[in-house]
Amino acid sequence: SGLPESIVAAACARSGQRVLHVDSRNYYGGNWASFSFSGLLSWIKENQQKTDPGDECEDWKKLILEGEEAIPLSRKDKTIQHVEDFCFGDQDSAEGVEEAGALPKLPVLGASAAKGVSPGSEKECPVESPCPEPESQEPEQGTEPAGATEGNEAGTTSGSESSPGESALELGQTEAAPSETPAQEPKKITYSQIVREGRRFNIDLVSKLLFSRGLLIDLLIKSNVSRYAEFKNATRILAFREGKVEQVPCSRADVFNSRQLTMVEKRMLMKFLTFCLDYEQHPEEYQDHESSTFAQFLRTRKLTPSLQHFILHSIAMVSETESKTLEGLQATKKFLQCLGRYGNTPFLFPLYGQGEIPQCFCRLCAVFGGIYCLRHPVRCLVVDRASGRCKAIVDHFGQRISANYFIVEDSYLPESTCTNVCYRQISRAVLITDQSVLNTDPEQQVSILTVPPVELGKPAVCVIELCSSTMTCMKDTYLVHLTCPSTQTAREDLEPVVQKLFNVNAEKETENEEGEKPRVLWAVYFNMRDSSGVEKNSYSGLPPNVYVCSGPDSALGNDCAVKQAETIFKEMFPTEEFCPPPPNPEDIIYDEDEIEPEESGLSNSAETKPEPSAEESSGEGAAAVTME
């Protein structure tokens, strides 16, 4: 139930197909999931032990008929490696401490409730009062007017302001996490407090932000899935230069209000950013440098070293040694186009964590009749030898379930299928700290920081720092995510950056003077498989109606997952619209002969379903089975 699979499931259910979505795990999201602190500790223990589940029963092999063969699926998750966690406080003091009661949280559809949801129940969701319209809005094609859709349905909350139009829930979240002034003496946070307040944490396995004009935001608005989530602006873009963390001016107002830049630098920066917005109209400016790196191109523009650093690492956020000029110009243009839609930065973050997004699409699928089963492993795919197509699955109960299409997450495929696949790895670290990396603002901040490579051959590290008003950590703490492509183990890749930005000396006094590094209270490092970019023909022996979804990639945004989901859906149903807006209840027209048999309850007759093809009508199972 990762993000690509959940989007495909929602799109299939929305187009009238019958969908069964099963997951061997006991939680939604797969490697896109979010955990409470105790949930993450359980996840760490599970991945450190890596016990072999074993084969409980061989009876399922009797269900393979003559003229069929089975492709056994992997029952051991090998996507997570080198998991190491560290406590920088008194861990013994937490013995016997249990988590406090659960936080009030937006309702998310669980497996037990999925079957009972009908299309009519969608209108029972609470309607929020309108939020203020984002700046510089333009009507989006295929959606409602921007004022009604982008401002209201996306549910964004400002980083430091609240308007009379915001809902009571949003105001309550702000009150739950009051801002701290830099002059306040930081409170000493103990490990036992973290354990006790563990339910206030929502810790993502994958760290991403949403570009305000990215594919995922457009899909959330178009499909109306945005009603199931709320978002907060990323309020600061930071840079790490000469051993110090600085704030990067992004918008025109930020540039001219900045005290870091001289008046000459301000003019130079505005001139270059204006060029990047329509660089395609001036090919003579960059054609001679297309084979050069973007860093080399910036040097030819007569920019000062500080401006080159800001543009390369904090605006374009591309590699200094590998990214070519056009890649850097495209990234800079994308950054600038996303400014101003929902705030002064291009990014949004979902309240309660990135793991909410897959669940939102699962909810849409369930609303339109999809069935969800967690803790439900699948033993094998059943392939018809004559046609070469997959016709069914066999689950761990020994049940045989027929379907026309099968969507499988990469980690389920056996090693024999992946012999020609070359996987990349992502290095991840999650820290709980006692204060911000740049503690200069009285308001709570959501910050993104790119740390340049610490040595030659190492990648740049993306750092995302979340405050408690994002509903991802307890009061008086910050949650810090570090991500980069792997060159070694996650700890070897990321620990040098952690030591540059934070105090990891557990014995040092916790009283921080102004300018002193934040203290790390707890940390975990792990490597995650990056299967994005693997072509389907790289997998050997897969039937043509089996589609493979990849896990998370190392990019900051979610465009890869959305593109992959749309590609899979269009291959299965080329004539259907991808995730169209759901109909308004008042717009549904019932025929008189359809209303009569529905007196005792809802039936499927009110839904418009495409006529099945000869191939589809031959099976009596689900139209699509997605497995994560």
Describe the model.
- With 628 residues, the protein is an alpha/beta fold.
- The chain has two domains: 387 residues, Guanine Nucleotide Dissociation Inhibitor, domain 2; 88 residues, Guanine Nucleotide Dissociation Inhibitor, domain 1 (Orthogonal Bundle), CATH 1.10.405.
- 25% of the residues lie in helices and 19% in strands.
- It has 17 helices and 22 strands.
- Strands 1, 3, 12, 13, 14, 15, 21 and 22 form an eight-stranded mixed beta sheet that branches. An eight-stranded mixed beta sheet has the order 4-20-16-19-18-17-9-10, sandwiched between helices. Strands 5-8-11-7 form a four-stranded mixed beta sheet.
- The radius of gyration is 25 Å and the shape is globular.
- About 18% of the residues have low confidence.
State the major sheet.
Answer: 8 strands, mixed
Regarding CATH, which class of the largest domain?
A: Alpha Beta
Low-confidence stretches: 102-154, 156-183, 510-514, 597-620
Which percent range describes the beta-strand content?
15-25%
Supply Rg: 25 Å
Can you tell me the number of structural domains? 2
Taken from the alpha-carbon principal axes, the silhouette is: globular
The CATH architecture of the largest domain can be given as 2-Layer Sandwich
Q: Termini distance?
A: 5 Å
The CATH superfamily label of the largest domain reads Guanine Nucleotide Dissociation Inhibitor, domain 2
CATH topology of the largest domain: Guanine Nucleotide Dissociation Inhibitor, domain 2
* Helix vs. strand class: alpha/beta
**Got a strand count?**
22
Number of helices: 17
